[in-house]
Amino acid sequence: MSNFATLIFIVACLVLPVLVVLPISALLLRRKPKSSDEDGQPEHLANPKRRLMLQGIAAALPIAAVGTSLAGVASTTETARVRLKPLAMPHMPPKLSGMRILHLTDLHLGGFMTLERLDAILAQAKPLKPHLIAITGDIADDLSLLAEALEMVAELAPELGIYVTLGNHEYGNGVDKVRRILAKAPVRLLFNEGLVLNWRGENFYLAGVDDSAGGLFRRQHTPYLANSVGEALAEADPDQFSILLSHRPEAFDTAAPLGANLTLAGHTHGGQLGLAGKSALALTGRFKYPWGIYEQGISRLHTSSGAGQWVPFRLGCPAEAPILQLLS
Asked: Which band of pLDDT confidence, cut at 50, 70 and 90, is reported for residue 93?
């Protein structure tokens, strides 16, 4: 997003809420008084406190709208939350209990996410010592930052490695160039494939799927995604614990019936707008898994709200880079 487009968006975030509430304020101020049942006096004379209350509400609405907009814009300057997030996993082998996975997604480096801000995120994560790092797409909108960013992530030196899946922005920004950069970086790209890893003497399967579908409001349930999940999990041992990395959370609909124990995804940003810990996207009915933890039988999905943002507004849905601690 260009600087000019960013400025226009910020102005819109500040102005549009005010334009919405101004007609409501005007109606409250212009409301005609009704006659009293007792003596025919106008209601504002019979009950002046009520009239003053309506005037106060009318005046407060635009101020509250501006305050809310400012809070939403200001929150984009905050570093993504890094916190240890316990996640109980049914049927997980006891030896794997305690594994910590740093889930990075939707960094969108080059917009409102700088290398300095990424460094601040990684500094928070380092003391928590993640054993594995999963990066589920939309890493960099400015590809000149991608190689250095991956080197910075690699400095955490997780014992199980760093694994990447592609997101739709990788395609939009030039997937061939992205793949060349990834091939030279200290990470492993999982492209509709999986591999067996071992931790504390216990094998588990880690897989990743491709995402070439594109924008947020396009059709989410595409045959390509389902086929990709099937391909990625094709060699998984049903007796082993399995983890699937996917940019889009809709992969969970295929992964869970195929036996994947845990799916990690992003893409939605949680709508960058939430209330009481729930994404506003849940109200649209279009998104089944916009933000949080979801369950299907023994399978779990974690959809992250993302560590970055594509537009400069977040409210009630902060950026995050959680470290999931899997517990049996």
From this structure: very high
